[in-house]
Write a structure and sequence with these properties.
The protein is of the alpha+beta class. The protein folds into 3 domains: about 5-95, no CATH class; about 130-235, Butyryl-CoA Dehydrogenase, subunit A, domain 2, CATH 2.40.110; about 255-390, Up-down Bundle (Butyryl-CoA Dehydrogenase, subunit A, domain 3). It is about 45% helix and about 15% strand. The chain has 11 helices and 10 strands. The chain has helices at about 5-20, 45-55, 75-85, 95-110, 110-120, 235-255, 265-275, 285-310, 320-340, 355-370, 380-390; strands at about 130, 145-150, 155-165, 170-180, 190-195, 200-205, 215-225, 230, 275, 280. A 4-stranded mixed beta sheet has the order 1-4-5-8. It has a 4-stranded antiparallel beta sheet with strand order 2-3-7-6, with no helix packed on it. The protein has a two-stranded antiparallel sheet with strand order 9-10. A hairpin with an 8-residue loop joins strand 6 and strand 7 (about 215-225). Helix 4 (about 95-110) runs antiparallel to helix 5, helix 7 (about 265-275) runs parallel beside helix 9 and helix 9 runs antiparallel to helix 11 (about 380-390).
Amino acid sequence: MENLEQFRIEVRQWLELNCPDSQRHPMAAKEQYWGGRTGKFSSADARLWFERMRDKGWIAPEWPAAYGGGGLSDRQGKIIKEEVKRIGARPPLVSIGIWMLGPALLEYGSEEQKQKHIRAIVNGEIRWCQGYSEPGSGSDLASLQTKAEDRGDHFLVNGSKIWTTSADKSDWIFCLVRTDPNVKKQAGISFLLIDMASAGVSVSPIRLISGESEFCQTFFDNVQVPKENLLAELNSGWSVAKFLLVHERKLMSELGSDSPRQVMAPNVVAHEYLDVENGKLVDPQLRSELVDYDMSMHAIALTHFRTFEEKTAGVHSAAPLVMKYVGTEAEKIKSELLLAIMGSRGLGWEGEQFTDQEIDTLRLWAMSKAMTIAGGTSEVQLNVIAKNVLQLPKS
């Protein structure tokens, strides 16, 4: 039996001694460390914080120590996350490799693939992006057409992917490709790991409504991919994709909890921007909306905790299927509340007359719309919930 309270004390003591003071307050997006071949630390303290967490094995505390993780239990990993959050510490490494690819590698990868790729993720050596959606294959992902032809010792890949997050800054991409066009569409898909430095790979950033270019279109023109970069068996990529999507949707459901912009809670902002009488907001309708939002967020937090407890106990739960929809919709409601509270002050796109918080609020509002699409649109998620959770009949 784990002595979790003693472990928590030890974690707290270690963090107090090893997390620099400068790494204990909100950071701007430009200060995030994503690792990779061209990754740069925003400061010497950011490098020190990353190196200490890496050497401790706490970049990925629940992953096996043999691959650079901490070798800890899920409960111990949860305590570390709670204690890091308690002191307001910044994430030492922001990584799609940790959030999404790593779990799939641990589940499906060969020993050689684990040794090569997982350790590089934990050490911040390689930055990954995801190649799933295509111009003609979004919600119906299984209809993807990017093909990989067997050429003996390698695959020859041709096609394109769209909405590839940070493809222009990434070193490798994990990619769904069609390896057999003559079978049921889900059955002819494989999962490849592709070096973005390979000849024939090119990237074009997409400008978004938020003013940023976080997403890209990625093109593959006769790209040679070694056979050892096939994850799992040939034509079994759909199983890997579904496994990985669970982790992506979990990440989406927790959207905002680690936002680098750290936009304040709506009830706090309301007391800053609006009239208050006897400690209470004057507008009764807004008070009601804020209470509804706070209740929803409390319910979401409790459900996340329940899901963790069920996972730890080995109990299968349908909650993760629901939480992506609930989490991203809640983030959208939050952004809309903040704009309503700020009024004209919340319409600042740029300029010294607006605060950083006001500008960030508007840009996050714009991005919140995209988050209800990424990882599975809200409409598709409702269909998934109806079919797999509620088991409703088809209309």
